[in-house]
What does this fold into?
Amino acid sequence: MKYAAPRGTRDILPADSPLWQLVENVCRHYFTLYNYREIRTPLFESTELFTRSIGDSTDIVKKEMYTFPDRKGRSLTLRPEATAAVVRAGLENNLITADSLTKLYYLGPMFRYERPQAGRQRQFHQAGAEVFGSSDPLLDAEVIKLCVDLFKALGLKELEVSLNSVGCRNCQPAYRTAVQQYFRQHAKALCADCQARLLTNPLRILDCKEGSCQSFIEKAPAALDHLDQECRAHFDKLVGWLDAWQVKYRVNSRLVRGLDYYTKTAFEVVSRQLGAQNALCGGGRYDNLVEELGGKPTPAIGFAIGLERLIEVMNKLNLERPAEGPELFIATIGDAARQVGVQLLAEARSKGVSADLDYLGKSLKAQLKAADRIKAAHVYIIGDEELKKKTGLLKNMATAEQKEVPFDQLLAQSDHSCGCGDDCRCE
Ligand code: HAM
It folds into this structure.
């Protein structure tokens, strides 16, 4: 019997890990730069937390949740997203208070039972940020700029920020009615799902990906035309800040997000380098959610980046990949040379230089082959001759250049602790 990874999941293999680590490090760096602190919540939560926050009539709640009873019959769900869980954890641990600002970030796997395709998996990873306590549109602009800065730092180009306001409790009902009335006229031409949405949650039709619905969606009433004064002013101030920071955006007044908790600002960052699933990140304001989950009324905004999609774009751009193997592989011939090699190995590691040697009793040729396979940057060769001279042969695996380096010099040079020269990757 051979086992395979469950459909819609993927192993992140050692060859891919350096890029994942780079992306995760850049995310952490930018979140910290903007003064966010990390929060880690459980991978599963009570089902009700998600049904209440994401919305009963969303695809996520209706079709995509991994829900199961535990041994005591309590209904649990693998988190399909993290915002609701962060609100729950923030309230439970008194991190969210109405009169102070709380900035939190997270990285981790999410689970949605979706039809797997390029850019869409059943287990995927998000890096996200949530801010609680301010309704200042400057914060909306800051959150969007954070995404853009982070993507630029990773070398991404051809990105587009798609921006909308979905209004608040005050203006949403009128917009909902306008959308419902409009789609009623075209009900027969809509897909079966949208015909049902027309009754349960007409705004969800705007998010439909079916080709047959697209031409109607394009001409649907625009959310921005139905904003009340406060939401309009909020949106105008937000675009003012984005303009001041020279963050480019495109207003898309039919952008609705796949979750029901949004109010006012909704945005996505899309990449032209991706296919149909082209949203690298999505987010927006959710000024009612904290109250709906039992807290005091607290404005909030956040976003989440899909890491698989981000990495897919980076792979397509052929950006320089981070080093995969160790800096140093010590290849020895005979027992006496191995003794020296083992000493140098310990010294290398104690000085922060990643290093390894052979544990399989291989010939020198096979050791060099192994070093190449694990993508070591340098090999240090010690045989009988080298033992006599107390000087090994340092080979640069990329250029095949070789030079003699005394044992006590290999890791001793003050400017290059590893002694591997100008192309050193140790620091
Ligand atoms: P979302 O738009 O559902 O928002 O997901 C955010 C991002 O996660 C998407 O733009 C996409 O890159 C990625 N993503 C979503 N589903 C999948 C999937 N099945 N496979 C691969 N990647 C996927 C949220 O989750 C909100 N919690 C974001 C948020 C935070 N809003 C406010 N705060």
